[in-house]
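It is worth pausing here to work through a concrete case rather than discussing structure prediction in the abstract. The textbook approach is simple: state the sequence, then state the predicted structure, then interpret. We follow exactly that order.
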Amino acid sequence: MSTFGKRLKELRKLKKMTQRELSDCLGVSSTTISRYENEEIAPTEEIIVKTALVFHCSSDYLLGLSPCEKIPGDFIKEYDSLKQKEQKLERLLNELSLLKEIME
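Step two, the predicted structure:
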């Protein structure tokens, strides 16, 4: 198993995420996650970066270039803040959609 696939699976299980949950975070299918974990395909640079953000680790760690899985705290805080804002915006858009349906 490639370092990326092995570490992806380890981190996903450590965070108690399903392949589907991770696929939603990365914007790929759950089949693609399975194929990464089973070393059937290699991730793009974009997926490596997104994965590092999701798991709060470095891309070097994911690629086996570093034994350290942490990234600077300020970056993590900024990412978490943006993720919360994105989720809030999504909820507001859903509420707006429901209001439009009611008004019609």
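Step three, interpretation. The domain at 1-71 is CATH 1.10.260.40 (434 Repressor (Amino-terminal Domain)). The first helix runs from residue 3 to 14.
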